[in-house]
Amino acid sequence: MHVLALDVGSSSVRARVYDELGRELDAAAQRVYTADYGRDGSAVLDPQRLVEASRQVLDEARAGAPSVDAMAISCFWHSLLALDSSNSPLTPVLLWQDRRSARQAAELAHRLDPEEAHRRTGCVLHTSYWPAKLAWLAAEQPDITAKAERFVSFADFLFFHLTGELRTSLSTASGTGLLDLRAGSWDSGLLEALELNEEQLPPISDEPSSAKEPVFPPVGDGACSNLGAGCTGPHRAALMIGTSGAYRVLRETRDPDPRPGLFCYLLDDRHTVEGGAVSDGGNLYAWLTRTLQLDGASLGEPDGHGLTFLPLLGGERSPGWNTAATGAVAGLTFDARPEDLLQAALEGVAYRFAELAELLPEVEEIVATGHALLVSPEWVQLCADVLRRPVTASAVAEGSARGAAVYGLQRLGAEPEAAQLGLVFEPDSERGEIYAAARERQRDLYRRLF
Q: Taking all residues of the chain, what is their mean pLDDT, rounded to a whole number?
């Protein structure tokens, strides 16, 4: 049995083939692309370009595989796309980074009960999610809203182009901020507040397509990342840094119970994904090395630069969800070197993860995953020192792709083998003490600014 796994991220798409044990075969392809970011806070992708890139990598991977029995898909979780009556796009793909709806997010939080909305949907009234974006479209682009027959995630649009069926999975729907988690259906209270009806949203079903080679509706990439890296219980967390970052646990439950400051999404009707997200990860590293013209840098003495870096260049998500928060650096002098700024940024990201780890105290093991983190052992060690706990590097190169394959294989009745783990990074207590003081400086800077 072979499963073709498609992993659609916000900066690249990959396709890989896995056998019935979840082992990767020598059949893989990748395409890289870049989102368009505007000074107005926009962050968009061309949906047709993404579909074409996905088709290309699928064809290449399939050509190198002996056979394929099914296709499973991991796709970036939070996006919005308006479609007309012929299911053609009226808008580009609005990504979670698109912050033009900040005013509408604040207005919704004032009109509605934000705590109750979080309890029902697992999502905060924030620019990352559909309620604010839909309100922004209605206010700023009413002609688009009037023409829109349906609002979908890019994952749904992709599934439609691959299968001819327009619907969404529970997992994808749970990342919109419009799903009632317990009911497994669109939230009637938010639909009423946004003056929408269910017919304007895709039907929800986790059933595979009816084609000869079944295609499973796309699952959120965060859920797949946990599944692929073997972080499948409440006591083992995935610490992921790719383009952005997240700290998540996957647990089996039919009764989601979102905690303040954290998100709560679904893998399927029996599993929740709880945790927090940071907007700055590999994107911050890439921006700094490009802007400062660095080829990379080795980390010096912990906090030896004296800088306090608040890594909110992409805005804040967990735990404060402040739509007005931005990045900041304090302590700059003429002695500061480009390498100091880069180190302070990496340390700052680790401090933000420490804030999230405190909100999930039941976690006993931490597994590092995500390309940006796994290619930097120094960053993994830094995280272990800041968290003051061992961090184990995942030995799975592509966690989300493997997670999609595992999801598909399990639905087909197979039992994939356990995910491979790599080197354990033990924390250094002396460094931990230094980082604890620096982390408090970051907290103080955040309080002063926001």
A: 95
Residue 97 above 90 pLDDT? yes
Let me know: does 403 contact 394? Beta carbons within 8 Å.
no
* CATH code of the domain covering residue 202: 3.30.420.40
Assess whether 306 and 216 both reside in one domain.
Answer: no
Tell me the two tokens of residue 153: 């995630």
- What is the Cα–Cα distance from 122 to 182, expressed in whole angstroms? 10
Q: Are both 205 and 280 inside the same structural domain?
A: no
Q: Has residue 31 been placed in a domain?
A: yes
Torsion of CA 205, 129, 55, 62, to 10 degrees: -60
For residues 216 and 317, membership in a common domain is answered with no
Q: Give the pLDDT of residue 437.
A: 97
343 and 383 share one domain:
yes
pLDDT at position 255 is 87
Average pLDDT over residues 382-391: 98
Give whole-number Cα distances, 422 to 369, 380, 406, 418, in Å.
Answer: 11, 12, 19, 13
| 236 and 206 belong to one structural domain | no
Q: How far apart are CA 409 and CA 22, in angstroms?
A: 8
Residues 184 and 120 in one domain: yes
Q: 271 and 129, same structural domain?
A: no
Residues 217 and 240 in one domain: no
Checking if the pLDDT of 66 tops 90, the result is: no
Answer yes or no: are the C-beta atoms of 407 and 72 closer than 8 Å: yes
Q: Is 31 helix (H, G, I), strand (E, B) or coil?
A: strand
Residue written as tokens 């933000």? 352
Give the chain's domain count: 2
Amino acid at 384: A
Q: Which of 168, 201, 221 is the last residue of a domain?
A: 221
pLDDT for res 200: 97
For every residue of 136-177, DSSP letters joined together read: HHHHH-HHHHHH-SEEE-HHHHHHHHHHS---B-HHHHHTTT
Nearest to 207 by CA among 412, 4, 3, 400: 412
**Could you list the residue range(s) of the whole structural domain that residue 181 is in?**
2-221
CA gyration radius, the chain: 21
- Measure the CA–CA gap between 352 and 441, rounded to whole angstroms: 12
- Cis amide prior to 256 (ω within 30 degrees): no
Model pTM score: 0.94
In this structure, are residues 175 and 248 in contact, taking their beta carbons and an 8 Å threshold? no
413: confidence class by pLDDT, cuts 50, 70, 90 = very high
Q: Does the residue 28 lie in any domain?
A: yes
Contact 214, 198 (CB under 8 A): no
